[in-house]
Prior knowledge:
32% helix; binds magnesium ion; nine-stranded mixed sheet
Amino acid sequence: MAISNTHELWQQAVAAIQSGKLVAFPTETVYGLGADALNPSAVAGIFALKERPSFDPLIVHIAHMEDLARLTLEPDPRVNLLAQKFWPGPLTLVLPKSSLVPDIVTSGLNTVGIRMPSHPVARELIERCGCPIAAPSANKFGRVSPTRAEHVRKKLAVEVVLDGLAPEVGIESTIVALHADGFEVLRHGVITLEDLKQVLPESKLSHKQSQVVAPGMLNSHYSPAKPLYLTQSPLPVGLDKSRGAVISCTGIDTEGYKVVCKNQTLGDLREYAVNIFAWLHQMEEADVDYMVAEAVTPLGIGAAIMDRLRKAAYRYSTGLKNI
Ligand code: TXA
Ligand code: MG
């Protein structure tokens, strides 16, 4: 079934962006909370609503390669190779920024993260507004990322929320920094290290150079409001399965749990990634006391999934107080 936004909603969305306000919109990864990337006070609104620390830079979303040229400095042939293969799509490139990009967007860094999304609603929003759109995931800082309009409406007081088809990817973009001596993966996603190496065969993986301390790199992030345990470590003793929810990718034993979310195609990591955040939201809302998610081998897309799951479960595996 096609999900469409009314003419009035589109008008509201464009008017909001053009007057420095915020709009939540679907992308193929997660929902974004967007503002005009070239308007510093609009971008400040994103940090305020998300309660996001100012040290955490935003990704700028574009619809055309010409926008990339305006927002970044000298052209890098590796960018064209990556863009030809992966854009539009779930890849963010961290590149030296032009003076057009306000400092608030990049948290004062001299680089900017740029992504060309493939979701038709995201693309249409950028085109209709006629400006690049800065957008983090549309959730309170540190919480589970949203993949549906209803996740955003329930958790965030943003006036305009565009609807759209469910994401094709479901987890955030792969973030790659290009350095003079190679490239660095700052956040894993469904575009894997192996995929990148095929496009940049001459380029080596460079040592960690990025100075940014951002959520992609914090131990705890994506935290649900209830205890989450991963199957890779022993569950706490005495848990009552009838008060628990479980997520299964490969067909682990789910007998006795009150809520069960599982892959249709056993072991399909793309399907696991598409659903993981929606399942965490569903279990968070359900009448259960805790949740369990199946850990998978951290290779390829599994690396991206385990990155999210480890961070989401971090508080509960270390006994940290939940935020
Ligand atoms: O798929 C996605 O990337 C989604 C959708 C909405 O596009 N966006 C998203 O944004 O995940 P967010 O704010 O949740 O993640 C932004 C992360 C920062 O935490 C940081 O790790 C990295 O992008 N980042 C952005 N600009 C950077 C820069 N200049 N240098 C290093 N890392 C940067
Ligand atoms: Mg996020």
